[in-house]
Design goal:
The chain has about 290 residues and is α/β, with parallel strands linked by helices. Helix content is about 40%, strand content about 25%. It has 2 domains: about 150 residues, Rossmann fold (3-Layer(aba) Sandwich); about 130 residues, Hypothetical Protein Tm841, Chain: A,domain 3. The chain starts with a strand and ends in a 9-residue tail after the last strand. About 5% of the residues have low confidence.
Length: about 290
Amino acid sequence: MSVLIIDADGELWYTRQEELNVDYIKMPFSYGGEEYYYDLGKNTDFKKFYSAVRSGEIPKTMALNPDEYIEIIEPYFKKGEDILYVSFSHAMSGTFGHLETALNTLKEKYPDRKCVVFDTKSISLGAGIQMEYAAELKNSGASDEEILEKLTEFTNRVAIYFVVDDLMHLKRGGRLSGVAAFAGTLLSLKPMLTTDERGSLKVYEKISGKRKALRRLAEKVAEELTGTEYTVYVIDADCPEEGDSVAAMIKEKRPEAKIVRQLVGPVIGAHCGPGTVGVIFIADKRPIEVA
């Protein structure tokens, strides 16, 4: 049985990560001339980060390099342990090329060890909810092969929708063209985004006005939620009142929903910006791009 590992881009809160008894890889970000590694909220100063961004600071995220991956993975191999790594979407970062380089290097030294990487094709708690599922399977006695088989089906049921407040954060991150961002800002458009079956970020719907966009988030959960035994995550990037409003609307429409509120971490927040609100839940299938 392999050791289960997630990365910080999966955004499981540190207490949940500890409860599930899974390890995690801290992911780097920087702002104000300082580099940090996200620790799933354990010692993160969210207010400092989002205040800096609101004041005009432009945060950056970085890929781990091969040497850093070797430093993370080799201790497991030295102990004779294999790894099952439930990762965020490979379509969103070049970091996994560095991981492959590291694993090829380690293979020469530890030919009997393996690190299997499962691409959740999602981000934030879209990946985190899949780690929860994998950990529950492991704790029930499932083998690595059984976990991977069930995850392959489960990943196609993960629905993630989010609305950003400022389109220019997506533009800087290469997720939206400059023309589209400028025009959307002028028109007060709030795009609802999702991740498709390839794990790429896509615009699902374009909505006029933040209030209407928040109502639409709640409606999507009410319409599509089928996995009521799983958590419905409502996340916000330093806009708790808006997140609470979405959670309340969901609860009114689907009182059986098990809702957990959570902050968006600084790595994801660097790309989506403050004012982002999102929902993650289990549906019959992933969203289909329509915009």
